[in-house]
Predict the structure.
Amino acid sequence: MNNELINDPGAAIVRLLPENASFGFKNGFLCLSFNGEGSEEYNRVFLHRVFPFELLWEYISVLDADNKEIGLIYNISDFDDRTKEMLKKELERKYYSPVIRSVDSLKERYGFSYWSATTTEGRKIEFTIQDTFRHVTRIGEDKCIISDVDGNRFIIESLSALDKKSYRRIELYL
Amino acid sequence: MTALCKIPSYVYTLLDKKGIEKEKIYLITYCDMNSDHIYADSYIIATDEKICVLCGTDALSKHDGIGKGLERYFSEQYFYEYNICDIDSIKVEELLSSARLTAKTVSGDDIFFCAMTNFCRGNANLFVKYFMRIKKGEITSSDFSLDTEDDPKENSCPKCGMRYPDRNRKVCPRCMEKGKLYKRFGVFFLKYKIEIVLLVLSLVLITASGIITPYLSKGFFFDKILNKNGSLYGEVLVAVGIIAATKFLSHIADMVNGWVTTKMSAKIVYDLKNTIFGSIERLSLSFFNGRQTGGLMTQVNDDSNTIYGFFCDGMPFFLINIVQVIVLCIILFTMNPLLAALSLITVPVFIIVIRRTYNTQRKLHAKNWSGIRRMHARLSDVLGGIRVVKAFSKENDETSRFYVANARAAKGNKKVQLFNNYVYPYIGYILYCGNIIALGVGGYLVIKGKFSYGELLTFTAYVNMIYSPMYFFSHMVDWYASTTNALQRLFEIMDAEPDITEKEGAITPNEIYGKIQFKNVDFGYTKSKKVIDNVSFEIEAGKILGIVGHTGAGKSTIANLLMRLYDVQEGEILIDGINVKDLSFEALYKNIAIVSQETYLFIGSILDNIKYAKPDASFEEVIWAAKCAGAHDFIVKLPDGYNTKIGFGAKDLSGGERQRVSIARAILLDPKILILDEATAAMDTKTEKLIQNALSGLTKGKTTIMIAHRLSTLRDAHKLIVIENGKVAEEGSHKELLEKEDGVYNKLYTLQLEALKNAGITE
């Protein structure tokens, strides 16, 4: 696509760079001082991954409290190490989902499946899934996301790295 | 004090030390992360003066000395307390798999209390809800109790304490009384008494003839007819006659069975589908919001088939098989107890093998089914969007994508077939082992003269017959489980109470004039999120009200509430001074019509669709309504005119044409209150103008609510309200609102005017 289209004022992408954006933490919340066409202070900003399954640290949309986009971070590495860490921390917090290391038991009963699993942190977790086929989603060839009745998300980073027993338990739903 | 979950006693002890006595706490809850989003034990405490956050980890104490055991204690990370008067509001901010409990102070600062996984979010939402209600003075802290639907006790099984997997479906899979389900459903079958009796009788006859035939053709024929010492030696014709008669009787029974089953199955499936569909239809709109239409369709279809299959195919065979096994065992043991015991030794082995292979088979079948389902989904997706595929020349890509899905489905199918080919010969062999034992030991007994040849043949035939019921029983367990599930879903729908019900003694006024009042109305599709927040406005009968606002501001919700598709959570809506909850459904639906942006036309003719709300309308009325809606001109150009079939597999109308038909449908009803929810948004400017002109004549004498994006369409409105984030931001006439220089309406209007000018359109 040519640059003229990208720079069309109606659809122009505001790129956030160290020159126009300075992030910080205030009362535990991410804040931003932005020097775009005008300068503006945002007490709270929210980060959203634009391609959450593919690019974890690139194309991060920065929204204000009214969910309006202030701009887009193309890559968090555009920023200095301190800011990069800050952004990384905020993104990790927002997109936190327990990563499953092994599926210890899986029982199906009347339309629900009851799971016990161990996370990579070593925590034993138990959760329930309704309509299991719909809530176990494969991302690419080797990754899988599981959503339970409470809206929690669990991730299996590598299906091929799962132990044989765990894999056999969930194989049916993949 | 209300604790939203179990709080350990040492937490209260610790709080007491910090000056927060247990008696002063009115609400407490637990979150499982700290403010750094690290797993921890956080407690949020509300008293009349303060809101506190205590965070730390629950741990076992170190050994305090010899003789003392380990004790649980709380390793504190942080403790904050805030005066209630300094806090403006608290809220739960949803992230992806987690959430944050935050507060806003009166001075506008944000405070981060703690984070939590979604396991704790429900309770945190409740905490926020009641804290804010008490803070606003809606209820008092001293005597409040949780609403029934919020009570955690209501969300878990009273018997075993397990939380219901689905809060909206209060069913504990562990404690569900399955017997009751079947008993209740059995009553449903009572009206088919004669058919059931015929069915059982025919099955008894089939089984009896099945049992007697081996004896007649083997034991009886060899020992009594062909054996010189037999009592009926030489009477071959008699024997053949008896065998033929038995077979004939068995075939007659088979025919009766087939006839009754076919007749009954059609009736029962018809009744079941009607019952399920009728139960679904009477439920309120909120029931459908949480479910997929496809899921409901599958439910109506699959559940009725499962239930029918179990009761009509499964149950009679189950009873017959039980009888058959008992009778066969009696016969076998009477003939020769030792031989019977030895031959049946393979039965337990057979059952174990069947159960084991069944689990694998079930998994393979499920996988195969899932592959086929995915392939179908891909197929319908591509065929549905074939125009896009062609437009972007993506035929090759789509073909290879289909190949992948197809290969997967084929692989699943191959696995099932291979498994069957490997396993069934083994199972057959186990069966044969029983036979071999019977033949070996029996043959020895025949040589010894302790058993006749005919008896041996009969015996082995009976041994073979016992395996078929065993096979049936091993599958019955799973059949029973899936039927229980289907029955439970059926009763869940049949028992569900619609949220919106007509009040007893509801009023149907002789005439509705159309004065509408909204008084402090609050509403949200989910309890935690308000879509309409304290909205009040009034519109006189026969006037036009315009509603303006951004997408998602809550404009359409106002229309839904007025039609009573949902009930308000707070406040009231009055039509001619009568609360809509006191009006009968007839009064509401006959006097309010809605034309929305999402038009839905049913399968049928254009005429049927226009007459949908008023089936007794005359042809002239239909033409008049279509003319008013600007639909007549395009309809008459169609070869079949008003009889043109539309919908699935028939004539496809364009978006604008569909819209005009749906407007005609609303016009024909001639309602007192007309809601136009972005009704002309999908049309070009010329058509829109045409319809606007038609509508302006039509809206005379009717209270009209116009919801529109294009502000120019609202200029004729007597009054306008601007909705922002569920609240009325501005109110007044077009002229009044334009005069407010900083007003939202003024800004929107100027923006749209400029956009039109840029596009070269002047108003």
